[in-house]
Fold:
Amino acid sequence: MIGRRSLILIGTINIAAFALFLSIASKILYAHALEPGFLQLDLIEKDLYSVYWKVPAVGSRPMPMTAKLPERCDKASPGQLMWDGTAYVAHWTTKCAGGLEGGLIEIEGLNRTSTDVLVRFDFSDGASETRRLTPLNISFQVPENPGHFEVARTYFILGVEHILSGVDHLLFVLALLLLVKSVRKLIATITAFTLAHSITLAGATLGYVELPGPPVEAVIALSIVFVASEIIRSRRGQLSLAQKYPWIIAFAFGLLHGFGFAGALADIGLPRNAIPSALLFFNIGVEAGQLIFIAFVMSSVWLARQVARHIDYPQPAWTPLIVPYLIGGTAVFWVIDRLTSF
Structure:
C-alpha cells in the first residue's frame, strides 16, 4: 500500500510534471509543426548560381518574407512561389558578378515572424557554408573565405532547437524519466537512448540505412503510448520488462527516434564540404538540448519534493496517473493523425 506521505510526494511530483506538460501545450497537438525557411544558392559555373527558396505556410498562404540577394546579382528577388505540398517554394538562376563574397543576403519581413531561415551558399571555389537568420538578425555579409566554426555553431544551435521544439521526442524522454526509479537506471536509460538515436541519425543521414518517414513518425508516437502504459502499470504495482530493464526499451525506440532526427536534418540539408562536422555538431546539439530538458525536469522534481514537505493533506489516489494518461492520450492522437496521413 502507498503511504499517506508517499501519496503527497508522488502527487506533488506529478503536479510539477503536469506544469511542465502545460508549458509546451501550445505545440502539443502538432509536433514539429513549423519548419524554418530555407534559402540555397548553388554555384553552377563561374558567377552563375541556382537559387532555391522555401517559405513556410501560415494557414493557406506563404509566410510574408522575401529573400534578397546581393545587389550585384542580376535577379536578386524570387519569382512566383508555388505550393509543393509542405511549403511554398521558388526556383531561379542568377548571375552575381564576382561571386557572392562580400555581398549582403537579407530576408525581408523575417523580423515580423516567429521562425528562422537557414541560408546555405557556395563560395566561388565551390566550398559551402550555412548561416541561420532569426527575427532579431535578418541579414549577414557573405565572408571572403569559408569558416568551419560557423558550420559547427549553426548546426549545434539547430540540434538544440530541434530537440527542444520536438514535443514528441521530449514526451518520450519525459515518460522515461517518470518510468525509471533509480539514478543508476536513469543514467543507463538515457545513455542507451542517446547511443541508439546517434547510430541511426548518422546512418540515415549518410545514406547507409533508410526508412520511409510517415511510418517512422507513427511508430515514434506509438513508442510514447507504450512507455506511458508502462508508467501506469508501474504505479498500479505491476512489474514488467520495461520497468526492470528500461535501457532496452530506450535503445530499441531510440533507433526509431534517430530516423526522426535524420528526417529533420534532411530537410535542413548539409554543407557539401563539411558534412562530418555538421552532422557531429547537430547530434551534439540534440544531446545538449536533451540534457537541458532533463535538468529542467529533475529541477521540477526537486522543487516538488521541497513543496511536499509543507503539504499536510493527501492527494487523491488517482493523482499519480494524471500525467501518464495525458502523455499517452496525446501520443494516441498522434498515432491516429499520422496513420491517416499516409
